[in-house]
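Page 42, continued from yesterday. The earlier attempt failed because a stray header line got pasted into the input along with the sequence. Redoing it now with the clean sequence only.
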Amino acid sequence: MDYIFQRKCLRYPTGITGIPNNKKYFNKGKLNYLVDDYQELNLHINSLVSSVENIIQNYIFKHKSNPTVQFVRDKIELQGKTTTERFEHLSDYFKQFLEAKAKDPIVPATLKDYKSTFNAISLYEHHYGALTIDKINSPVFLKEFEKFLSASVNEQDQEKFKVRGELNNNTIIKRIGCMRTFLFWLESKELLTLVPGVRKYKSALHKYDPVNVTLSIDELRALKALDLKGEEEFLRDAFIFLCMTGVRYSDLLSLTEHNINDDNVIVKDAQKTFGTFRVKMNEDAQRIYQKYKDELNSLSTTQFNKAIKELLKKYKLLSDSVRLIEIHHNQRTYPIVPRWSKVGTHTGRRTFINLMVENNVDINTLMNMTGHAKIDMLIKYFDRNRKAGNITDKINL
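This time it went through. Structure tokens are written below.
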């Protein structure tokens, strides 16, 4: 980020290195999908930009004028000095890292990933002894940590450390990404210098596209028709709202009446991507929003995911089976589970996208409604298990 005042320029370094100075790797000042871990790195950039903007805006609010470049530079250096305290234990650094992340403009789900990584590190230390900054600054450790994350965890440790064992490839890759973000943060505080093998570390594990579960319009009608009261009624209504609007749960958590215009269109900057999406609420969504208003965001993601599964199971909805594809440390498995067991907050967004496609909404309009910037990200939401019906009859000659 550059700040220019009275012909003087402050260039704010991000600490990110190893990226060629080529426009094809950037999009509107941010890294794009051509860069490994670009989403995590963009979160880091957003944090730095937010820090500088806060300094500038606070000064303008107090003095009714722009600060000098030197004032902003001094403030940044002062902030850096207050966060380089040295600790004996790695966990203390990670707690400080979590505190810094909690102040960043990141979505709750991302913060949850960092906390889960911290829990996994705590369990690792419980079994193998205390870790140091120097020890984790090693590609050998990252590889060992991957293997550790793929191993089973007994019930006692699961309860004590709030972790799951036998993580799939996608989750392990996410945890390693969080570890690398933590290591970059340590380097930004001048607590270590990353070794080349960590700076350019790339997991040998293969990511895969998980099987998506969505609801048909008939299944949504059956859910709506249930005679429910209290918490069950609220849970059902909130889930239908997600299915009727396609908003991410992180955006529902921060949704207010200020995001809804006079035409009942939700216009909001997405918590995850910071891009703007616009989606008109249909009659069901309007009814639900008027019923609950800001109370729609009263459950955490974890609470919602657990409760919606229990609700669907209790009323015998989505009881048919689905065959999954999972990869655990590059070993492929095909578990068969009831569909309700794979339903969560994001199922609403997937359901909305598939319903729009089935109703011939064009891709550009759909991307404007969901806030997707790239079609390849949108395609990942398509449910290949949905019944196509007699659609081929439409191309009879």
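Notes: The chain has a mean pLDDT of 84.
Reminder to self: strip header lines before submitting.
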